[in-house]
Fold this sequence. Notes:
Blueprint (H helix, E strand, L loop, with lengths): L1 E5 H12 L13 E7 L2 E7 L3 E8 L1 E4 L1 E6 H10 L4 E7 L2 E6 L8 E6 L16 E4 H11 L14 E7 L2 E7 L3 E7 L11 E4 H10 L5 E6 L3 E6 L2 E6 L18 E6 H11 L9 E7 L2 E8 L3 E7 L2 E2 L4 E6 H8 L6 E6 L6 E6 L4 E5 L5
Antiparallel strand pairs: 1-5, 1-7, 2-3, 2-6, 3-4, 4-17, 6-9, 7-8, 8-9, 10-15, 11-12, 11-14, 12-13, 13-26, 15-16, 16-17, 18-22, 18-24, 19-20, 19-23, 20-21, 24-25, 25-26
Helix pairs in contact: 1-2
Amino acid sequence: MKFICPKDTILKEVEYASNFTSQRNSLSISSNILLENYQNVLTIKGTDGKLGFVTSFPVSTDVPGSTTVTCDKFLQVLKSMPSVDIEFSEEKDKMKITPVKDSKSINFNIRTISAEHFPELLQYDETAFFSLSQRDFFDMVDKTAFAVGTDESKFFLTGVYLEKKDDQVVMVATDSKRLSCIRKSFEQDIPDFRSSIIPVKFLQILRNIGIGEGLFSLMLTDTHIFAQINGHLIYSSLITGNYPAYQRVIPPSFNYECKVNVSEMLEALNRVSIFVESNSKKIFLELRPDGIMLSGETSDVGDAKEIVSCEYNGPEANITFNNNFLVSSLKKIDTEYFRICFNSATTAMAFFPDPEKDYIFIIMPMHA
Length: 368
């Protein structure tokens, strides 16, 4: 096999492919990527058994063929090369990599493994894909993925839940202490699909490959999710298990609400959090008609207090939040104001953008 390709072109694609290889065992074939070079087209494939990746792009083919190389070392070599045309040639189980115009001074050789040892990627039904707006779908990911759980014993909470409901696409994430939910109506026709729990890694890779403009295609089976985006095919196993009934976490109505400026609240949280205990992460809010008193205390160092103006006509309420949960949720609100809605100081607190949009965040208060 022998072909010539601009360094920057192949580097970008190998960087994508590296997300789909096994990092645990460098000797395993799953740590390799497959290179298939025919008719001036190079196809790169990668899989770790759960994730799969395919992309193709033009190159100058001298000798057609296929082989596999260790992705990690191949990527390191490419990053070290100058941004010029690179020649890749395989002879006797080694891939020689050298710049076309400087072949005498720079020369790498990487061991290869025969392409016949590379595992088959999953087959799929091309007609089952449906189109979605990249911008809208990535907005859904941005509003939810930050709230997934990290406790592997509750594996069904480590992914993002996706369903179609009432002609809308709904995306939800929760770690049982907070929840984010967003609903969107798409201009494209969305067929019915099975509700699924999608690994966050897949969504992060999808967003990385996407450009946020135009459409991409999605397809869900009972066990996998597939996406075609910007000339790439990627897929992932779905997370098994029963997702909790998230609707029960969202109160149907609220007795009280407090309207606050987003940036003013975040700035105050940033200052007061200097004196939030790193272990407990507790920050204290006292809601009053004349403003919200934020306070934090570090027992052996000091304390901080700050009042943020608000619109609130309810009774005084003392609420304790996980500071990280509060900040990460507020950073996702893309309006000037937000509303805290609640029924009591110890029950679920809802955070709405103001004016209201298509998403909501729920945070459970902590014990004081």
